Amino acid sequence: MPTPAPVDLTELSTSLGGSRRLPGHLAHPEGTGPWPGVVVVHEALGVDDVMLRQTERLAQAGYLTLMPNLFADGGVRRCLVPTMRAATSGRGRAWADLEAARQTLAEHPDCTGRVGVIGFCMGGSFALVAAGRGTFDAASVNYGVVPKDAEHALAESCPVVASYGGRDRTLKGAAARLESALTAAGVPHDVKEYPAAGHSFLNDAENAPRLLRPLTRIAGMGPEPESAADAWRRIETFFAEHLTDV
To answer: How far apart, in whole angstroms, are the C-alpha atoms of residue 38 and residue 35?
Structure first.
């Protein structure tokens, strides 16, 4: 499986008004490029082994994949709250960081210039708002918050594939609202809710702090392999359709 290599996005990020320190992880597919690019936006728990494996998986599927560390400039404790606010408000330095990652991929000699975005949890919220900005060519939204003014916010959205868990109490009805908004806007989309899944069901392992895992299990959070397998199939099919040059 492709191994993500460290990259430094600081110079571009600071020039755009973003973080003063922005490392990332870049994973190349096997073989010879160029390939489409995908920016990975991590969960609220930050960059960990689970998120790195998601990055590797997308590279294995044929995408030049870059995950910026949105918490690097200050650590999780200082960055978590403002970054989560930025995810839904569309404002804040994290957006400059994501734009730095997008530009880095788009201008990379191994990239075709077509770039998608995928996000999980907090990252899913970023991916959905980013979709509405029109800078990405496709977006994969995984249990992300749907904006209150979704129809307006997504009026000019790129194509969206989205996955939600029916057992996710924090996002009850989100899939239906997103489906409705994208349909009204005429945006190509594939939205699905999985009845057996909860929040973070696409993760391949539990990654909450150990002391909190009994609570996350009670809340139905964490891996759900059968739902995840179907969601990944849909994501890869959708990205192949919208990010691959024809």
So the answer is: 10
